[in-house]
Amino acid sequence: MSGTNKSAAPKIIPVHVTHPDRDELFRAAACPTELLKRNVKTFGVQCTQCQKKLDKILKCSKCKGVWYCSKECQKKHWPIHKLGCHDVERSSGAIKLVQMLTANITLMMCLQAASVMDCALLDNPRVGFDTPFMVRIDIAIEPVDILNFIELYLNNGTVEEKLQGMVQVNTISPWVPSMHGPLTPTRLRLWREARAECNAKGFSKDPVGLIEFINYTENGSTSAFQISPAAISIVKKGEPFVSSSALTGNQTEQPLNSETYINLHIRADKQNQLLLRTEMTEQDKEVIRAAGRNEQSLFVTLLKNKMRRERIYANMVNLTAK
User: Fold this and answer.
1) pLDDT tens-digit map of 138-160
2) Element (H, E) at 192
3) Which of 282, 253, 266, 237 lies closest to 146, judged by CA?
């Protein structure tokens, strides 16, 4: 026997328990699939070069993250686009997932409420009317099964090659001109047109802003959106987010947090009613592995902040802390 007694590293056995009311709560709040399919038809995509609204999308075949009305516009835009164009694995890009997210009235209400809070619309009554605002939504794809997430995070190498994934929101943050720079002329024009359209339709009292969806493997997509009175009312009430442990039944109150509600709602969708599921790519998996290795990158930081914020990950971040 060796004179040094080294104890073996403790074996981690994850346990995942589902709350008995999860399915009932999901059905009560979920947007019906038929309504999603109708709403998605109103999702407008504009040509990246000339801003013409597109009925048929011509995507960049390499990155699938920009759209054009013609090959001529694609050629004109190439000197700018080539600086950030890169290969992505997902055949359709993230555009279909973004379309389904924006077509979902439940989730968009949450994003509207988050925008009111993060962009301080209650403190600046003319923002959204005289001046634009923009909110950024960092989305990612995570395994549907939390146990698969743990396997990727701990880099144990046992996950299947094909994993079903789901959309998750890592963070919602405001566009800050002093940090990110002023809005581009294209975005300003998009906001002005949307503001004028809302005024013409009788919604002159509703703030209008821009929303940008960002995915770590692709270019962002920006569209205009309207803040409803219901979203403003939610923020004014300020009711806390209440979560209940499936294991102990203990309830915990947290400040209103749209990201957490959105992520739990999507996670509870076991039949893909919300159409926010897709097969995970190696790029999706690698971000989770990189987080487990404590690599330093923006996407790892966003993921780890999400893990600290949401109870389902428990103390997983501490398992790999150096």
Assistant:
1) 999 999 999 999 999 988 767 88
2) helix 185-200
3) 266
Q: What angle do CA 154, 26, 229 make, to 5 degrees?
A: 110
Pairwise CA distance, residues 289 & 252, whole Å? 30
Structure tokens at 286: 């690698």
Determine the straight-line distance between the first and last CA of the chain, rounded to whole angstroms: 31
Q: Determine the 3-state secondary structure of 113 from DSSP.
A: helix
Say which amino acid occupies 254.
Q
The CA–CA distances, whole Å, from 90 to 52, 56, 287 equal: 25, 19, 15
126 phi and psi angles, rounded to 5 deg: -95, -10
Residue 313: is it exposed, middle or buried by C-beta count within 10 angstroms (0-12/13-18/19+)?
Answer: middle
Question: pTM of the entire structure?
Answer: 0.84
Give the pLDDT confidence of 80-94 residue by residue, as tens digits: 888 777 776 665 567
3-class secondary structure, 240? coil
pLDDT 10s digits, 217-262:
556 778 899 999 999 999 999 888 777 777 777 787 878 889 999 9
Q: Return the amino acid letter for 23.
A: D
Residue 309 pLDDT > 50, yes or no? yes
